[in-house]
Design goal:
Helices cover 87% and strands 0% of the residues. It has seven helices and no strands. The longest helix has 47 residues. The termini are far apart. The mean pLDDT is 83.
Amino acid sequence: MVALWWFTDPFVVVGVAVLAAWPNPLIVLVVAAAVLTFINLGCCNWIDRHWDGWMARYGKRIEKKLEKMRKGRVMRHPVAWITSGSGALFGLAAALTNAINAVVLGRLIGGHPVGERKGLIAAASFSIFVAALGALIGLAAGDIIRA
């Protein structure tokens, strides 16, 4: 379920944009941010609790992909933010990459659970970013549709 949610991020932005195009985009922003935070927090907490067992079974295949992603030009800075220990930088990394990516990278790089506080920061920052982006797109699209 977590992997499925991880792959649906682009569709979530589109869904929020479609919803925000007709009713009040501010209401859609608030409701979407709350719902997405709840879902992302559940995913982040699940990853943090089940990491060790999951990596024992599937870690070899994923490890190579994550290593390549960590060393890439785009991900180099978010990886540094994730491991720095700052909640604000962890939230920024989560907003720019994904809450699940931030928790997974935090677990993988740090070697220990990221904790509930950072999980909540990751879930909220990414959810607010996605909801805001979708609401802005929906607001613009709604203006075009109504014109």
